[in-house]
Amino acid sequence: MKLANRIQEIEESKSVGLAAIVARLRSEGREIISLNVGEPDFPTPDSIITATKKALDENKTRYSLVQGIMELREGIAKKVSRDSNYPVSYENIILGNGSKHILYNIFQTIINPEDEVIIPSPYWVTFPESVKLAGGVPVFVPTTDLQLNIEAIEKAITKKTKAIIINTPNNPTGAVYPKEDLQKVADLAVKHDFYIIADEAYELLTFDDIPHVAMGSLNEEVFNRTLTVQSFSKSYCMTGFRIGYLVGPAKIVEGMNKLQSHLSGNNCTFAQYGALEALQMDQNSLKEMIRELQKRRDLAYKLCKEIFPNTIKPEGAFYLYPNVQDLLGDKFKTDEDLAKHILMEAGVAILPGSYFGTDGYLRFSFAGSEENIKKAFKQIKDVL
Ligand SMILES: Cc1ncc(COP(=O)(O)O)c(C=O)c1O
Fold first, then answer.
1. pLDDT tens digits, residue range 299-315?
2. Whole-model pTM above 0.85?
3. Protein residue with least CA distance to atom 12, ligand 1
4. Which of 355, 367, 318 is nearest to 124 (CA)?
5. Which atom of ligand 1 is nearest to the CA of 167?
6. Which atom of ligand 1 sits closest to the CA of residue 38?
7. Averaged over 140-161, what is the pLDDT?
8. Which of 69, 89, 157, 309 has the fewest CB atoms lying closer than 10 Å?
9. What SS3 class is residue 38?
10. Letter string b/e over residues 352-374, b meaning 16 or more CB atoms within 10 A of that residue's CB
11. Which of 260, 280, 300 is the last residue of a domain?
């Protein structure tokens, strides 16, 4: 018997697929350096672990409110209010099992069949698939030098446009979008009446003091149509806790709550207390991690540019996205062939740009150690 059309029409996350291949090669005794991973190798801060254990000791092991424990929602609302110019309440917040889950729930809540969602490319692989799962149609708009192309975005708007996804700092490119461009997108959203889905999972990870501008902080009119997707995964090294959240209009929170009350219920209750500690702990301790990431960025960028001259310096997140079109031809027909060669011959796992909607690029993560970064680029240089 066939699987449902909706499952046949989506693809498995290719980054998750590659992780399985790497695990197999390692089990066969191959040494593989993972520059494909989307998580920093720093440990979760001690106080977060302690708070989570304490919650377990105190039997915080029961159902919580579907939207999340009140203290955490209030804490998030306080943080968002601090960062913007207007008050945000707990009614604007709902937690989910990672921001992937939040994205799924958003589209299930706002999309009717054939509604269009504009997605600048390259894009994070989960965006189009979660739109398709809701019966929506992803409309891809290429970026220019990895930055938003506002004119092209404007041209892609139709009567069916329901939303645009803006991801800054960006996966897979490491680009950080300037305030002027975000404002132009916001103006279009107001003019043509559509939602902005702002994936800001990497908000704390920007380099060289480049500011991250939150879409929802532009002004209240923009906030009222912005669904901000957030996560504790990247900034607090809590990928396994699975805590993401939405900041948005109370009406959207109510809709998502209805769905979630049948779909998944609440997030793991004691993990929510770990997230609460993440919000409350001294945020200065994160600065050390960001400084270390910036050192890794500088090293990886220098080594990458020596091999792939068309590399743009990333300003945030932890990815490099060189254009490798010059290397494609008889030997490597596609970026996927090149990535496979690098995996099998150099023992370095990376992802081809075609997985992210742009042919002729490679994505390198510099979330791992300096030692691994040096070793990986040396091995790649040797085989190319
Ligand atoms: C842009 C972006 N958003 C969200 C996430 C997912 O984070 P979470 O662990 O909260 O599901 C990722 C993970 O790679 C990401 O790159």
1. 999 999 999 999 999 99
2. yes
3. 201
4. 355
5. 1
6. 14
7. 98
8. 309
9. coil
10. bbbbbbbebbbbbbbbbeeebbe
11. 280
Residue numbers of the domain that contains 86: 46-280
Q: What is the pLDDT of residues 26-47, one digit of tens each?
A: 999 999 999 998 888 899 999 9
What CATH number is given to the structural domain containing 319? 3.90.1150.10
Please identify which residue in the block is written with the tokens 């997707």.
229
The stretches of the chain forming alpha helices (DSSP H) are 5-8, 14-27, 46-57, 70-83, 98-110, 126-133, 150-156, 179-192, 220-223, 250-263, 269-280, 284-307, 335-341, 370-383
Indicate whether residue 36 lines ligand 1 (CB < 6 A).
no
CB distance 60 to 269 below 8 Å: yes
Write out pLDDT tens, residues 320-330. Answer: 999 999 999 98
Q: Evaluate: CB of 100 within 6 angstroms of ligand 1.
A: yes
CB 318 within 8 A of CB 205: yes
Query: What six digits make up the tokens of 123?
Result: 């894009």
Radius of gyration of the chain (CA): 21
Last residue of a domain, one of 280, 312, 334: 280
Residue 223 is predicted with a pLDDT of: 92
Lowest mean pLDDT among 15-24, 111-120, 170-179, 287-296: 15-24
CB contact burial 17-54 (16+ within 10 A = b; e otherwise): ebbeebeeeeeeeeebbbbbbbebeeebbeebeebbee
Q: What percent of the chain has pLDDT over 70?
A: 100
